[in-house]
Amino acid sequence: MMKNKYMPFGYKLMLSYCFFIIIPVMLIGYFADSIYVKSIREQTESNVNGTLSQMGDNISFKMKDIIRVSDLLYYDHALARNLKSYEEGWVSYSATTRYLLPKFQSSIEATSLQMWISIYLHNETFPEIYRSYNGEDPLRISERWYDLYHISRIMDKRWYKQFPEEDYGITMQWKQVDDDPEYGYISLLRRMVNVQSVPYPQEIGFLKLSVYLSDLFESVDHNKIGNGATIFITDASNEIMMSSGESEYEQDVLWDEELYKDYLIMEEFIPELEWKITAVIPNQIFTDKISEVRLITVLICLLFIVFYFVSGAVLSRYFSRRVGKIVSVLDSFQEGNFHKRINFKGNDEFTRISLALNEMGQNIGELIHKVYVAELDKKETELDMLQAQINPHFLYNTLSSINRLAKFGELDKLQLMVMDLAKFYRLSLNEGRIVLPISEELEQANAYINIQKIKYEDRMGVIFDIDPGIMKYDTIKLIIQPFIENILEHAWCADHINIRIVGTRDGDTIQFKIIDDGVGISSELLEQMADSNESANVGYGIYNVNQRIKLFYGPSYGVHIYSKLGIGTTVCIRFPIVAPKNSKVNELSITRSGGSFRS
């Protein structure tokens, strides 16, 4: 079998420095770089989202402004009545010049946008009023104007035939119709109706409000996003209606996302148009910043690695020399030489170790002696405990009860008492073991209660309230029965007494409470019991249990008693959780004691 190759402590310390410092520095640098790249992208996406949202809000505001202008004509009932009932003559002429034409003019002047309103009327007695544009852009001639036509001009138009049925106040469409694509317009299409007609509003005309796409999308500017970015406005069929940026396209070109698969693409929908704003951002915007930060990160990591490497070499040499001296002293102790000493300057852990080793050589004999005496004390305490378990008075009373039951021929009770007495002493002796499962400790207490139940019958009531989760842990034996016995001997104040045994887990400790509603204990007697010794008559059992717990588990644990005269007494037993080494937890079932387990 090959022996492990010897490696000095200094080399191991140096390797640990390399592993636990250099590697983490590299990982920190890597994750810092990744986080920064992600942060840049997320920040850019957030900024672009905000910009696109502002663009969308601006477009929606202008569209609502155009709808507001159409509302001035749509909801004017007097206008609808005059247009429907117009007839040739002075009255109609007067209404036209004094109300209708000023109404059209005031409506178109209600917006700051360049707008051309075309009004198509069913009443063909109303004269057409329009300009002759000769193929020119109407809005180049006048920024705001309106024309009146007869409906017959658009009756055969496809867009007019396909216009949806009227839902009063709601039905409208945004479309490019007729010459709109040529002039760069987009139009709001809407009926004019007479609401007084029944059963449905009657169409008396049709409105077409045309504005420049460039005015409507004035806020769409790629410079608001960054250099190299491009913004596309696409319709529902994915055709490019407008673009801004280095990659500008003409209209009627299909938007192809595959051409920009290496770009960051973000979208904002315009619900009124069913169009969308698409921002295309080149990755070069990110990579320039990322490369600069990545170089700085690498340089910082290299500086830290060099610094930690040099520091690690110096520290490992310093500590390895000190550890070597400590090892030489330990080797001497192993050989039986406890006279070797070491001295370190300073005030650190190595100095404290050297002082401790120096004291160890001087005190080791005394420590061995103390351990030996402690073992003797522990054995003596165990003998005292075994002596206390075999209570002659309890055995005498039980045998007397057995004799009485035999005389009266109560064989069933006799059999139960004998079986419980045997179980009690079997668990008490416990094959000489000090520790037993909590389930067996409770079983022994239950056997004692069953014996006393035969004696006192219905004069005593016992309830077990035990957390099932603590049954799997161990305890030293005979910590509950002495307190039950003490209650039955000293706590009676009436013809009936109730006892409640509670077992719970509190963090890393187990706590038992034995509660009775008996006569209680005076404060003077409580002080006497706390100071009781082996010669005391009352409180020896309490003293015995308390001392055994403190001896076995430490001074932080033990027994505490709380009592009030005329109300009752509560005994609290605390000890740490100890898992069983090689035993299965026995489920305890109490059926003959008048009590029950409750979780």
TrEMBL record:
Keywords: ATP-binding, Cell membrane, Kinase, Membrane, Nucleotide-binding, Phosphoprotein, Transferase, Transmembrane, Transmembrane helix, Two-component regulatory system. Gene3D superfamilies: 6.10.340.10, Histidine kinase-like ATPase, C-terminal domain. Signal peptide: none annotated. CDD domains: HAMP. The keyword Plastid does not apply. It comes from the Bacteria. Its main location: membrane. Residues 317-369 form the HAMP domain. One of its GO terms (cellular component) is plasma membrane. GO terms for molecular function: ATP binding; phosphorelay sensor kinase activity. It is found in: Cell membrane. Residues 476-579 form the Histidine kinase domain. PANTHER family: SENSOR HISTIDINE KINASE YPDA (PTHR34220), SENSOR PROTEIN KINASE HPTS (PTHR34220:SF11). This is histidine kinase.
